[in-house]
């Protein structure tokens, strides 16, 4: 049994942000932190005080997380401190958020992080005066306040007017091992407080506050002793005078906690659902999928579709599941022009199938069109007609290039997606025999163009095809391209030209595009009959992996001290389902590899070690028992440490999520000059000064399937609509007659029984 927490985040927009540039505007972007750890960075929206992001993320969290922080920053390379304002939400407030949140100015005394290890006890008994003993052992993950990427932390222990202090230089992981004693004042037992504060010592400027912990003496006397790691808190005595005057951020958040049971508990549910798509619908009695379709509300339809698609993918029945939905949708549709245009369960499930399973492969085959992130420079004065003619020519060339890329991608499309579209193609042809052969093509394009390709063209950042949103001029070009593709998908040039006069000049290209798209669909739905099944099989196998590859800078160490010069060398790194391999070139025959089950920790490295915030370490154990550390500098094309975490660290953590021999603590520094740079310990075999983090990961399309979690989510949905399903079942029973409905009564009763048994 495992408890899992998932946070759905949608950063919608901001308004009335403060001016930060001399032009009277700002270039805002957002960073999201979970317990002071940056995990998300949005795109920068240029030159606006009311930015719109519309970016969505799903984050898997450990059940013990405390806060979620949203920071709004200004993209300005001339300032070393770009932070503007932020929103801080505690665990209780995160449960469900939908609306505008006031932004507040960041107070340095509230920006604290880290934990401190303390042992506090009350000594003495009888006639002997009692003493309060506070032993300060160590701290970890303190905030970095100095330019060298560290701090000079000193601890200040105060009680009843008496103060002790102790300092450790150049460390965010100090070990004090100091003990302080105070005379216990019995008269203050009800109100007396023991204060343990951590500060960064500075020779010239003001000392920086790093956090504090308060203890009630009355509770300490009852317990006699208290020991453990305590999270450092902010100085709550201060309050910002600018609260509510620095603009607002519109957020949508939803936190979901699930307790996932062992697989055996979900076997009856998965078997029941598998049987429902395995049997053929005869149109005379209600199917379970039909009941789910009829009772699922619009608000939950997308999530239910995602869960069902993933569950049937794991069962190897996703093609059969989608086929059942196709037939249900076709039975309800009387007008061909409205086919699959609503947000039905069939439409949402097909959309999820394209994204979750294999859609990214298809997108990558025509993503070359986004190299047109440029605008033609005008070096001479031109008339308006010249500009229109030039823009029209450029748009036609971009559209032609895009259509060529789409057409070429048919051969590389995974086998499973070809089979699903083939089934859809046949079902529509049976339901709407069309002498012009248009409806069956439009059914395919309603998913491929309207719900997949066009949105990816308009917002390539949201489909992970580009790291930034396009500027205003390029966005306009992409919007026109997306509309052109949507028009081609509708296969009606006359209607579009009457509604969109600017498309008149594109009519020849659109007409040619319709012919090309028909050829593409014909090839796509017949790929499963192609002689080149070897290529199809290879592409279908790729879609289930989480393989990533590219050039990174590595340094490998086996009981070696760190050299004085830069140790990193450029390697081509490949992360597959089972292995991490790296070589000097992409096609090199000689390479080194690490088996993923042997990886014991994947963690970040302190910035001061290599002068970069984008270095991570992979700690693995060899067959000989020796421990090896591989350092990766992932600085290529990255914005900052938050994006580094999003694109790299999250991937590695998920790849090693099922490893059993993981480390509980590690060193975030390096071993150099006969000591660890993080905690200054001289023993190289020291276990570590910081705890490893396994919990926070970003969900992506190509994540490995988790059948138990999907079954649990479907079960929760069935519980929520149980009464609605029962009412719908009896209504259909009355409509169709008792005799016809008796065949489904047993299955429905089994489902209700399962819902009852699993709760108990």
TrEMBL record:
InterPro entries annotated for this entry? C2_dom (IPR000008), C2_domain_sf (IPR035892), PH-like_dom_sf (IPR011993), PH_domain (IPR001849), Ras_GTPase (IPR039360), RasGAP_CS (IPR023152), RasGAP_dom (IPR001936), Rho_GTPase_activation_prot (IPR008936)
Q: Name one GO molecular function term.
A: zinc ion binding
Residue ranges of the TM segments: none
Q: What is this protein called?
A: RAS p21 protein activator 4
Residue ranges of domain Ras-GAP in the record: 300-490
Domain named PH is located at 545-661
Q: Which domain of life is it from?
A: Eukaryota
A GO biological process of this protein is:
intracellular signal transduction
